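Need tokens for this chain, all 106 residues.
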Amino acid sequence: MNPWLILIIAGLFEIGWAMGLKYTEGFTRLWPSVGTLAAMIISMGLLGLAMRALPVGTAYAVWVGVGAVGTAILGIVLFGEATTVWRLLSLGLIVAGVIGLKLATG
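Here are the structure tokens for all 106 residues:
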């Protein structure tokens, strides 16, 4: 399987566990905690698989970037978090960085 696809899927699971943390209420709720921990394990496992073929710095930066942008967007959509020009521009810079790393790595 394509390591970039694996890495993007890992990033999506990172979004899942980051969002899941909101619902665990400090890991005091069983099922949200179980789902969050499962997403963490899957995300880390897929990141490790992607790192077999990709440079560690690139893979980690892309994984974090996908997770950060996705989590921020869902925070805006689901929780009504602030949507400012600076916030959106900053998220755009992260996306540009991820694209740049992909182009630089191949």
